[in-house]
Design goal:
With 118 residues, this protein is mainly alpha-helical. 78% of the residues lie in helices and 7% in strands.
Length: 118
C-alpha cells in the first residue's frame, strides 16, 4: 500500500505540474488576444511559474494576473517606441516582474545606450 500511495502521489504531482504549465500557456494566449501583444514564457519562466503557484497556493491564472497586471501598459509603450509586438519572458520576469518590465521599457527609449554598455 505504501508504494501504491507514493506512486499515486507522484502521479498527482506530475498532473498538477502539467495543469499549471497549461495554465501558463493559456494566460499567454489570452494576454495576446486581449492586448494584441504576444508574450511567450520560455522554459525557465514556466518552471518558475509552476514553483511559485505551488508555493503560494494560487491558481496559475491568478498568479499571472497578479504578476503581470501592468504588462499591457509597459509593453504597449515598447510597441509604440519600437514596433515590437512579441516578448519572450524568462525566469527573471517571474521573480521580479516590475524590474523586468521597467528594463524593457527603458531599452525601448534608449536602445543606443544599451548597445554601448555591451
Amino acid at each position: 500500500p505504501r508504494r501504491l500511495l507514493d506512486r499515486l502521489m507522484a502521479e498527482g504531482q506530475k498532473l498538477e505540474t502539467q495543469m499549471l504549465e497549461a495554465g501558463a500557456r493559456q494566460f499567454a494566449e489570452k494576454f495576446s488576444s486581449d492586448h494584441g501583444l504576444e508574450i511567450v514564457f520560455d522554459e525557465t519562466a514556466v518552471r518558475r511559474l509552476v514553483e511559485r503557484a505551488q508555493a503560494e497556493r494560487m491558481s496559475m491564472s491568478d498568479l499571472c494576473a497578479h504578476l503581470f497586471k501592468d504588462y499591457q501598459f509597459g509593453l504597449n509603450l515598447i510597441k509604440k517606441n519600437t514596433g515590437r509586438t512579441k516578448f519572450i519572458l524568462n525566469a527573471g520576469a517571474i521573480d521580479a516582474p516590475d524590474k523586468f518590465l521597467s528594463e524593457l521599457v527603458v531599452q525601448s527609449y534608449y536602445p543606443a545606450a544599451i548597445a554601448q554598455k555591451v
